[in-house]
Amino acid sequence: MPQHSAPAQDIDHVSAALAACLPALHRALDRQVGQDFPHPKPPEAQLALLRHVEAHDGVTVRAAADALHMKPNNVSALVSQLTEQGLLERRQDPADKRIAHLHLTRTAQQRLAEVMDLMGAHLGHALRSLTDGELEALGAALGALRSLTEQLRRPAR
């Protein structure tokens, strides 16, 4: 674990500010996208699964659950919901009928692209209202936020 010169109170302040700011940012973006999306907007867990299947076509429920840090039975329930909505297909593994591989439907591909475009448009609009210094600070923080995300995904010790 790296040693820090920052006082514990500074780390505590940053921790509390991030814990308050990030969910609020997500909710604001989610609300704006939900207002503009012409279909019922999938909840975040469903979107996360759809994004993962898009990036890993043919993934199994267990592998998706591991990657998304979710319980397999919760992912299985999401798969059932998304299959009923016509957004996911389950295809049996030819070698092991107990295993299903997940694939996006064309409708899911289109809707996921629409959601991502709306998110990008809303974020882009908001980012254009920031000062150059604020934009530079956000750009500089992206790597640190990615590292923080990876640290939080690791099992607690």
Describe the protein's topology.
Elements: H1 8-36, H2 44-55, H3 61-68, H4 72-84, E1 88-92, E2 100-104, H5 106-128, H6 132-153
Antiparallel strand pairs: 1-2
Helix pairs in contact: 1-5, 3-4
What does this structure look like?
This protein is mainly alpha-helical and 157 residues long. Helices cover 68% and strands 6% of the residues. Strands 1-2 form a two-stranded antiparallel sheet. α1 (8-36) packs across α5 and α3 (61-68) packs across α4 (72-84). The model has no long low-confidence stretch (mean pLDDT 91).
Summarize the structure.
With 157 residues, the chain is mostly helical.
Characterize the biggest β-sheet: 2 strands, antiparallel
As a percent range, the share of strand residues is 5-15%
Alpha carbon gap, first and last residue:
12 Å
Which structural category fits the helices and strands? Answer: mainly alpha
Placed side by side, the strands forming the largest sheet appear as 1-2
Q: How many helices? A: 6
Which segments are poorly predicted (pLDDT under 50) over 5 or more consecutive residues?
A: none
Q: Please provide the ordered H/E string of secondary-structure elements.
A: HHHHEEHH
Q: Radius of gyration, rounded?
A: 19 Å
Question: Percent range for helical residues?
Answer: 55-70%
Overall mean pLDDT score?
Answer: 91
Number of strands: 2
**What overall geometry do the principal axes of the alpha carbons give?**
globular
